[in-house]
Amino acid sequence: MPHRVIAIDGPAGSGKSTVARRIAQALGLTLLDTGAIYRSLALRAREQGVDWGDGPALARLCASLDLRFRLEGEKDRVLLDGRDVSDAIRTPEISRGASQVSALPEVRTALLGRQRRFAEEGSVVAEGRDIGTVVFPSARPKIFLSASPEVRAGRRHAELASAGQRVSLEEVLREQVSRDAADAGRSAAPLRAAADAITVDTSGLEIDEVVARILALVAAADAGR
Ligand code: DC
After folding, report:
1. pLDDT of res. 179
2. How confident is the model at residue 45, as a pLDDT?
3. Is residue 189 within 8 Å of 108, Cβ to Cβ?
4. pLDDT for 49
5. Which domain covers residue 122, as residue numbers?
6. Beta-sheet strand order (sheet of 198-201)
7. CA distance readout (Å), 220 to 66, 153, 203, 214
8. Is the residue at 189 inside a domain?
9. Which of 24, 48, 108, 186 sits CB 3.0–4.6 Å from 31 for a disulfide?
10. Is there a domain that residue 57 lies in?
């Protein structure tokens, strides 16, 4: 039997990462955080002096990326060449780099096979921007998480504050608006819900409610409804 893929797509701050981790834990599946792959590439490029706009050089870098994921309690650890880069890939600078490198078709093509191979090893909860549309078009169910821009910026601001980073809410909102526009407006795999995705607006919901709703959608998909 082929391995199962549950797809969770959505913009930054929609609650995707937390929700995907909780669903993976609840169902005993592996979590595939595809944003972390783009972030790790941006970090590696920065360290090696490769420009974030240089598609061919970045594609070559993709081939040698040794990436592993480890779920440790609440933390989704990312190991790049055996080095823990979980925090280093989440800085505002690397967020910008990830957005830039992910807009390049050469990069997306170079990373496609790698993402699909994760699901050859076992069933996964895959989260990103184009999981339901491009990477795993036969995933079931496909969830698209959304939330208002203000709610998303508020969550991101709280996250940064608890990590000791001092930025204003206005700055977070401004950055988010420009990143959203870049992610949704690019021609290569833009951020959008798949035609058969189920959209869940998380604006007024607690994480537990979102998780319960998605687990019910997974059960419904299993029952063939
Ligand atoms: O989900 P995230 O914030 O960690 O993603 C970082 C960047 O990578 C974001 O700007 C969009 C991009 N990305 C993408 O283009 N496709 C994916 N499947 C996942 C992330």
Report:
1. 82
2. 98
3. yes
4. 97
5. 5-220
6. 30-33, 124-128, 5-9, 142-146, 198-201
7. 37, 32, 23, 10
8. yes
9. 24
10. yes
Please work out whether the CB of residue 130 comes within 6 Å of at least one atom of ligand 1. Answer: yes
Both tokens of residue 55? 């598609």
Distance 160 CA to ligand 1 centre (A): 18
Q: What is the pLDDT of residue 128?
A: 95
Mean pLDDT in each 10-residue stretch from start to end of the chain (225 residues)?
Answer: 87 89 94 95 97 98 92 84 93 90 95 92 94 96 94 90 87 88 81 94 93 96 80
Q: Is 225 inside a domain boundary?
A: no
Q: How many domains does the chain have?
A: 1
Within 10 Å of residue 38's Cβ, how many Cβ atoms? 26
Burial readout 77-110 (b: 16 or more C-beta within 10 A, e: otherwise): ebebeeeebbebbbeeebbbbbbbbbbbebbbeb
User: Tokens 């687990």, residue?
Assistant: 215
- If one residue of 76, 99, 191 were mutated to test the ligand 1 pocket, choosing by the most ligand atoms within 8 A of its CB, it would be 99
Rounded CA-CA distance 171/161 in Å is: 13
Tokens found for residue 104: 């390049």
**Per-residue pLDDT, 225:** 59
Find out whether the beta carbon of 100 lies less than 6 Å from any atom of ligand 1. Answer: no
Q: Which two tokens mark 58?
A: 């970045």
Q: Which two tokens stand for residue 148?
A: 């208002």
For the stretch 126-145, what's the b/e string if a residue is b when 16 or more beta carbons lie within 10 angstroms of its beta carbon? bbbbbbbbbbbeebbbbbbb
**d(CA 224, ligand 1 centre) in Å:** 31
